[in-house]
Specification:
The chain is an alpha+beta fold. The protein folds into two domains: about 25-180, no CATH class; about 205-675, Neuraminidase. The protein is built from eleven helices and 33 strands. The strands form ten sheets. A five-stranded mixed β-sheet has the order 30-7-33-32-31, with no helix packed on it. A four-stranded antiparallel β-sheet has the order 8-9-10-11, with no helix packed on it. A hairpin with a 5-residue loop joins strand 21 and strand 22 (about 485-490). Helix 1 runs antiparallel to helix 11, helix 2 (about 55-70) packs antiparallel against helix 3 and helix 5 (about 125-135) packs across helix 8 (about 170-175). It is globular and about 80 Å long. It starts with a helix and ends with a helix. It comes from Coffea arabica. Keywords: Signal. This is HIPL1 protein-like isoform X1. Pfam families: GSDH.
């Protein structure tokens, strides 16, 4: 039993370890919101243009600086720049040391590692300059005494006014506040952070696919035990647990259609626009067995379906005045998130092959005003453990009731919910919640009092497939389906407004009708897409298009695609690789890339007549397994990205002499930080040994 107990502790440690690697960040403010263009120039801090400060923040920093009462002008100039660093586009990264928030930014210590993403400004030993200039200068309420008291051999005198009162030497001071600039971090050198523009990646020569399954699915979620299993769900409401073959094995996906993991077809309303839209596994599934599904239902056919209508007096909407849509009345159809469990179906959740068919609890229920644009994907945040719920604008052309910009409406939003702390029925009623969840305390409503507390970001038309980068979890990417002209990919941040229906992509949009009113473009700070495409680029005759969001490619299988964001058009004729340059800048270029199916695909592919393009049908979604291999979920089957050489695509980084199943895997770009297959294999081995202890 002692061995089993040690295995349990080791598994817990390894599970936590995967989140401890340092991840670099795109431009992001201290409060996790997006830097925005300033309409009024800052008067104190020299951070005009796009900044993390507004005029109120600028005034507060000015008052803080005056209160420090620094008599030495040279030191005062340095301290002003340090206080104003809160306005830097990279302030979220600058004001953290080992993931802990700090009072002052991390100071450059003149060390620039070879893989640094920062310019030569990082070679400035700003920490040494600050110490030399300010070590004996008195300052009131020094931020250096409050930040890291007791570290680096210093004292804990919170009332000290000189650096030398707290720190014994420059070495101690800079050990606490200094840092080198490398691939994963930036440092402050007395001026706004700049990134290198060198080392731009080259788009892959093509993406090679193999077909491993014939079924049509909307969702794929890797099993949290680290194995080669994954959950697949289809739109009618069935969920299966499948086994995925190893890369290069020639095998096909093993899935028993007659024995689903969970069958919700009696509850789910299924047609072109409705169905099961999302599934998610709780981060602690291996211990608590919690499983979640997002779907649509018809309250005229299922009494348990009913919920409040999204068109209500709180959002200045009268459901009785809405026109019928496709023969249905307003809020006949509902958007639901429900919780299920595998507890009781097996001795341990990891051994479960089915879930209990009855709901444990209803997380969310909301009536939809029209029959389209309700999105429905659900994801757990990889670092915060909260449930993200994507919701469209509710339908009808042009969002006529302006739900997406209405901060009291949950339509056209991304919500962020806490499903671990369930309030009482009385609290749910008192807080006017839409189900069994609580509100994370750092949701943006605490700063923007007009926002409904569930909202994380707003201004979406129909977000269709979102994902977190497995290496850099602050990169939360969502594709948003356009209306007339433009399909977009957004880098989603706290309290970000992504423009709809004032903008469609980067362009102003004129709603054909707007009985619900409009929002002035001058009154908002929209965040424009980081990638996207015009409808005419994929269908010159009709201009018809609909984006399907994907993943940052982090597998070892195709090293020439590593780190690029893959996304596609629904109609399966176009696929893009988004390349960020400079790295960690949040600036992307989209590259239309060729793709085809390997001649030795385990399941033979069919092709578009007269073309090398595989006949995928519709690309509904993408998936990612525990090895970070990426999948395309199409109407014609399940396709996996495989080594480019199998389709005769050239990739200089690919090791074509090694067997995929037995030889060394090709390496990703130098310095890449990621979980590797050996890590996953180790976890899988330990899980297997641990399960033997339970028998």
């Amino acid at each position: 039993m002692g061995v089993c107990r040690n295995l349990s502790f080791l598994l817990l440690f390894l599970s936590l370890l995967q989140f401890l690697h340092h991840s670099s960040s795109h431009p992001l403010c201290i409060d996790s919101s997006a830097p925005l263009p300033q309409k009024v120039p800052l008067s104190f801090c020299s951070y005009n243009g796009t900044s993390c400060c507004n005029s109120t923040d600028d005034s507060q920093i000015k008052n803080q600086f005056k209160a420090m009462n620094i008599s030495d002008s040279s030191c005062a100039s340095l301290l002003k720049s340090i206080l104003c660093a809160r306005c830097d586009q990279f302030s979220a990264e600058l004001f953290r040391i080992n993931s802990r928030p700090q009072q002052v930014p991390v100071l450059c210590n003149s060390t620039v590692l070879p893989n640094s993403t920062q310019t030569s400004q990082a070679a400035n030993n700003y920490c040494s300059k600050l110490w030399t200039t300010c070590q004996n200068v008195s300052m009131v309420n020094s931020p250096f005494s409050a930040s890291v008291q007791g570290q680096a051999g210093g004292g804990v005198m919170s009332n000290s006014t000189k650096l030398t009162d707290i720190w014994k030497s420059q070495s101690d001071f800079c050990n606490a506040f200094g840092r080198a600039s490398d691939e994963n971090s930036v440092c402050f050198a007395g001026e706004p952070v700049n990134l290198n523009s060198t080392g731009t990646s080259i788009p892959p020569s093509g993406l090679c696919l193999e077909k491993i399954g014939n079924g049509s699915y909307l969702n794929m979620v890797a099993h949290p035990d680290g194995s080669n299993r994954a959950f697949f769900s289809n739109q009618p409401g069935m969920i299966w647990l499948a086994t995925i073959p190893k890369q290069g094995s020639g095998g096909v996906m093993q899935l028993d259609e007659a024995n689903p993991f969970l069958d919700l077809t009696d509850e789910v309303t299924f047609d072109t626009a409705f169905g099961m839209m999302g599934i998610a596994v709780h981060p602690n599934f291996l211990t608590n067995g919690r499983f979640f599904a997002s779907f649509n239902c018809d309250k005229t056919k299922w009494p348990a379906c009913g919920g409040r209508c999204a068109c209500n007096s709180d959002v200045n909407c009268d459901a009785s005045q809405l026109p019928p849509d496709s023969g249905s009345f307003p809020c006949q159809y509902q958007s639901v998130v429900a919780e299920f469990t595998v507890n009781g179906t097996a001795s341990q959740p990891s051994l479960a092959k089915t879930a209990q068919p009855s709901e444990v609890r209803r997380i969310f229920t909301m009536g939809l005003p029209f029959t389209a644009h309700h999105a429905g994907q659900i994801l757990f945040g990889p670092t915060d453990g909260y449930l993200y719920f994507m919701m469209g604008d509710g339908g009808n052309s042009g969002d006529p009731y302006n739900f997406s910009q209405n901060k009291k409406s949950l339509l056209g939003k991304i919500m962020r919910l806490d499903v671990d702390n369930i309030p009482s029925a009385a609290e749910i009623s008192q807080l006017s919640l839409w189900g069994n969840y609580s509100i994370p305390k750092d949701n943006p409503y605490t700063e923007d009092k007009e926002l409904q507390p569930e909202i994380w970001a707003l201004g979406f038309r129909n977000p269709w497939r979102c994902s977190f980068d497995s290496v850099r979890p602050s990169y939360f990417m969502c594709a948003d389906v356009g209306q007339d002209t433009y399909e977009e990919v957004d880098l989603v941040m706290k309290n970000g407004n992504y423009g709809w229906h004032v903008y469609e992509g980067p362009n102003l949009f004129n709603p054909p009708k707007s009985p619900g009113g409009n929002t002035s473009a001058k009154s908002m700070n929209p965040i424009f897409p980081v990638m996207g495409y015009n409808h005419s680029a994929v269908n010159k005759n009709e201009g018809s298009a609909s984006i399907t969001g994907g993943y940052f490619y982090r597998a070892e299988t195709d090293p020439c695609t590593y780190g690029m964001y893959l996304y596609a058009d629904l109609y399966a004729g176009a696929l893009w690789a988004g390349i960020e340059s400079p790295e960690n800048s949040g600036n992307f270029t989209s590259n239309l890339i060729p793709f085809t199916c390997a001649h030795d695909s385990p399941i033979s592919c069919t092709f578009v007549p007269g073309s090398t393009l595989p006949a995928l049908g519709y690309i509904y979604s993408f998936g990612e397994d525990n090895s970070k291999d990426v999948y395309i979920l199409a109407s014609s089957g399940v396709y996996r990205v495989v080594p480019p050489s199998r389709c005769k695509y050239t990739c200089s980084k690919e090791n074509t002499t090694a067997e995929v199943t037995t030889g060394p895997a090709p390496s990703p770009p130098s310095g890449a930080t990621k979980l590797t297959n050996p890590y996953v294999n180790l976890v899988s081995l330990l899980v297997s040994l641990w399960l033997l202890c339970l028998l």
